[in-house]
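Data deposition worksheet. Section B asks for the primary sequence of the deposited chain exactly as it was used as input, without tags or linkers unless they were present during the calculation. Section C holds the resulting structure in token form. Section D is free text for depositor observations; keep each observation to a single sentence. Incomplete worksheets are returned to the depositor.
Section A, Depositor: J.P.
Section B:
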Amino acid sequence: MSLVTLDEETETVHVSSSSRVPPDWVDYLDEAQYELTRIRLRLRQIREMQQNHISKPTFLEDLEAQKEMDKSTDEVTEMFSHCQRLIGFIEKANVIESSRQSLLRGNVISTLRLTLSNLAGDFRTSQAKFLKQIEARKETVNSYLLASTDWVNTEVLDDVPIDASHDGLTMEQIQLLLQNADMVKERERDVMSVSKSIVELNSLFKDLASMVVDQGTVLDRIDYNVEQAALKVNSAVSNVQRAERYQRNDKKMYCILVLSVTIIILLILLIIVKT
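Section C:
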């Protein structure tokens, strides 16, 4: 009875298990899927913060929330870029794989790109909607600021005496104007922040579009090769069928067949005569 050493057994187990080890790009796939989950959660949080922010009567009361929203916007933009890099790692993975594994990797890349593109489109739509809401609030404040300024100027420049209660009302109006001016500045900062994120998203969309175009070129090339292979197979089948028909209709084959049968019969007769 022969014994197997521990080293040989370990090596055998390592070889059998290594054949089942998934390719390296699977790790990038898991990380990309986790990043997509984080993006969905962060987009939901940003939409909720935007709705709460736009519902405030004045943005000056919500400066901390504005900073948190800007931080989340920067983070989700970085998540998009990171996920895009992960997809690039999967595409450029240098592995030895079968045609089925290569097809699987191509389908994974296409699915990830489509999901990332849809999420980026949702984010860009949400940012554009938020920007329109800010612009609308800005126009409302500007019109009210202009009307209030004209009213205060009229009241101050008039020679009509002003009593104490009316003087207090005028000071409230002046304070409100100062607050509205600060609100306009704050909205300008919001517009710049949202515009920056939209510009970054546009850059991301361009990169995704180029990636999709490259993937489409590869798929078109694969489709072309499949079509060419199908045409060649059909042509080969037609040639075989044509050759079979020629072989059946060939007179030489009939002659060979007749001669073969005749020779067999003569051999049988010769054997009978000899015996």
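Section D:
The chain has one domain: 15-212.
The CA atoms of residues 127 and 194 lie 6 Å apart.
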